[in-house]
Specification:
Length: about 140
């Protein structure tokens, strides 16, 4: 996989923990993705996505469990969005929860992939490539 292709991508990180957003940002930078926006919850993320003139991200990395809403509710809201461009953005759920049933439900709601923490930068890069349609 060429990191050159990943460099041009824009990411949105949705996580209620600032530390986790920082860790994910670092992982993204390790695969060449530096155009990153952040939101502390799904509501803030939707507001960012709907901001007039704002370039939409190529993909979203969202925590499964957050204080104000969860990753599944966010993913469901994106998939049902009236703007088709936003509705098609790949959402990668990143969670410490290894419950297979929760992972399956997240996939049924429209997550491109459910990833379990911890994850390495190369593995994250491969999953992003798959989600946005690059050959891994």
């Amino acid at each position: 996989m060429s990191t050159d292709m990943l460099v041009a991508l824009r990411a949105l990180i949705v996580d209620d923990q600032r530390t986790m957003r920082s860790i994910v940002r670092t992982l993204l930078s390790q695969v060449g993705i530096t155009d990153v926006i952040e939101a502390a919850d799904g509501t803030e993320a939707i507001e960012l996505l709907e901001m007039p003139g704002e370039q939409p991200p190529d993909f979203v990395i969202c925590d499964l469990h957050m204080k104000d809403g969860d990753g599944m509710a966010f993913c469901n809201k994106i998939r049902r969005h009236k703007n088709d461009d936003l509705a098609q953005i790949p959402v990668l759920i990143l969670t410490g929860d290894s419950d297979g049933l929760l992972h399956e439900v997240a996939m049924q709601i429209g997550a491109a992939k459910v990833l379990t923490k911890p994850i390495s930068a190369p593995d994250l890069g491969r999953e992003i490539s798959r989600a946005v349609g690059f050959a891994a």
